[in-house]
Write a structure and sequence with these properties.
It contains 22 helices and no strands. By secondary structure, it is mainly α. The radius of gyration is 21 Å and the shape is globular.
């Protein structure tokens, strides 16, 4: 494997720059030296976000520094994403500076554009959505008193996060929060707080949890609205995830239990989508539980839970991808079940190709699988996936 292709290689580079031994870094990060050695060699991935944050803190760098750029900068997919994101950045700066012009379209046309953007998100077609967003942001800002800016800013934050631009996902989410509060609709306030909590840096997991918890308190007065109840459930889920990353397992379990109670009374949405494609209900809670079990290192539970989820019936593409990514990671980390993991990851890629290929976590899983297989024949399917992810040069089959 090339030196820079997995997270562990970047850990090694930063450790040497800091003049730390493996033993010293392991001690600072609360890990065993053996585990850190395997991470640096690419034999094990950084299996949990909390571990990534601990290593980054010990090295005095950000988690983003260790995740690195997502994919080959010469990859046409990354080039296309970068071109669109450059224009989105300018639009966000303009709106932050208060430069709001006349919209190019009327309210009805704006409404149709918002709905189209949401459909593109439903299909995880972020590469089609991204070039539309600069103009949509400017137009939506020119329609005060409507939900247009809240919704387009929400779509922008989700799109940027899935294209690997978490640093821009945060200001887009903040724009959604401000627009939702000006609109005064509790359901959209909950949705904006939810996407804002998810957009924050991994190191700010405690802040993310508090954002979700404050929103949960603020929205209680509107809990009679079914849309608000869906958002309350989603906020419990986001608080559970950030608590797990922040190593507060009991708090994560408490929020998860609240989400399960809310879901049990609501049921799965009749249209398969829910408010703002939240898909909140018992099935979505099980999907989040898979992610949480993976984050907490309980891979057996994640794999067991996967068997009861009707994944083929999920109408939102990123929900299907979330299922297969959690399953693939759990299989890969639970005892070298790499053949099964590869099948799951291939299905995750089919569900949402762009976000899969630009996700540094999935790249690290695949990189680890290839590295582990370097002393034996490497499956051609695995090598092909590695090439699509920009991982190389690759191990030769023996």
């Amino acid at each position: 494997m090339a030196a820079g292709e997995h997270i562990g290689a970047r850990v090694r580079v930063w450790r040497r720059r800091r003049g730390l031994s493996q033993a010293a870094l392991a001690g600072l990060a609360g890990l065993s030296q053996g585990y850190l050695s395997q991470i640096e060699a690419g034999l094990r991935g950084v299996e949990r976000r909390s571990t990534l944050v601990s290593i980054a803190s010990a090295l005095d760098v950000s988690a983003a520094d260790l995740l690195g750029q997502t994919g080959d900068p010469a990859d046409p997919l990354r080039v296309k994403a970068s071109e669109a994101v450059a224009a989105i950045r300018v639009a966000l700066v303009e709106l932050e500076a208060g430069e709001i012009g006349e919209p190019r379209c009327g309210a009805q046309e704006m409404g149709h554009a918002v709905e189209r953007a949401m459909r593109l998100r439903q299909n995880s077609d972020y590469l089609t959505l991204a070039p539309l967003l600069p103009a949509l942001l400017r137009d939506a800002a020119g329609h005060p008193g409507t939900d247009a800016l809240t919704r387009i800013a929400y779509e922008t934050s989700v799109c940027l996060r899935n294209l690997g631009y978490r640093d821009l996902s945060w200001p887009a989410a903040k724009l959604a929060v401000n627009a939702a509060r000006e609109l005064g609709d509790p359901a959209w306030i909950g949705a904006a707080d939810f996407v804002y909590a998810l957009s924050l840096p991994l190191e700010a997991a405690s802040v993310s949890r508090r954002v979700s918890e404050r929103s949960l308190v603020a929205l209680q007065g509107a809990a009679g609205d079914p849309n608000v109840r869906q958002m309350l459930g989603q906020l419990h889920l986001s608080a559970a995830l950030s608590s797990a990353v922040d190593k507060h397992a009991a708090t994560a379990e408490a929020h998860l239990a609240e989400a399960e109670r809310e879901a049990a009374t609501l049921g799965d949405p009749d249209d398969g989508k829910g408010f703002n494609l939240s898909f909140f209900g018992p099935t979505n809670v099980r999907l989040w539980k898979m992610s949480l079990f993976t984050e907490l290192g309980d891979y057996g539970k994640a794999i067991e839970l996967a068997g009861g989820i009707p994944v083929d019936k999920l109408s939102v593409a990123n929900r299907r991808q979330s299922y297969y990514v959690s399953l693939g990671r759990s299989l890969a980390y639970s005892g070298r079940r790499d053949k099964e993991a590869l099948i799951a990851l291939a299905r995750a890629e089919r569900a949402a190709p762009a976000s899969f290929r630009l996700n540094p976590i999935t790249r690290d899983v695949v990189s680890t699988m290839v590295t582990r297989a370097r002393r034996r024949a490497v499956a051609e399917d695995l090598l092909a996936m590695a090439r699509r992810l920009g991982i190389g040069p690759h191990c030769s089959q023996q």
